Amino acid sequence: MLKSALHILLLASIAMGVISLWLRLNESRLIYYPERAIAMTPRQHGMKYEEVWLTTADNVRLNGWFMPSSHPSGKTLLLLHGNAGNISHRFDKYAIFHELGLDIFALDYRGYGKSEGAPSETGLYLDARAAYRYLREQRGIDQHKLVVYGESLGVAVAVDLLGQVAAAGLALEAGFTSAPDVGQEMYPFLPMRWLMRAQYDALGKIGRIDAPLLIFHSRDDEFFTMRHAQKLLAAAPARKELIELRGGHNDAFMQSAEVYREALRHFTASLPEK
Length: 274
Fold this sequence. Notes:
Helix 4 packs across helix 5. Helix content is 40%, strand content 18%. Strands 2-3-6-4-7-8-9-10 form an 8-stranded mixed beta sheet, sandwiched between helices. Strands 1-5 form a two-stranded parallel sheet. The chain has a single domain, classed as Alpha/Beta hydrolase fold, catalytic domain (Rossmann fold, 3-Layer(aba) Sandwich), CATH 3.40.50.
């Protein structure tokens, strides 16, 4: 009996070791789902735009689109998108931003769309800083007229950015507290907090942000529970609000379009312009 139990324990330990090794070796493939092909351009959607190329501090060339609103409010939104697709897969969101009078700069991280390189946590942080620097220095956009918007994985990227620089406001959609927290929820039988190299520690960094904060999260989100949004809200020191949506991780902003649009309209309109 004891021998049998020890044998089972040994096999279970070996299996867990193999799974842990596989997860560690394939971490990037499990986090990033970039697409290279540009599905459509803003022009094909009837939007004016300028294709932008910029270079990061570590010399990686990135591609993005600057899309001016036809009835500008004077504010510009920097979109830091999620882990899948590229900037050509978010036109429903662009339409809402334009309806609110926001000029948009959408950036493809390294490895996404036409941008060079391969994605990594450090790399994405550098990409966001390069985008911010472009808007401030090359387009001359005042920090008090700049809204940073993070979507899913982009939430952690946006929080990291706003811990380093200033902006009028920060909007976060469908985010998470940290990558190890998500990993532990997905694989509760494994020591994911020890195994994971990527951190994307939004919870640990959000306390550094003094810009007004708006968080969108759906109770129906199939990837990240509402607990993630609630923890981020509690840890943020500045003016803050959590708007609960209904719908899936990727489409809650459409399923709850009226709530989403009005909350974002009120948020951007109420930001102080110093």
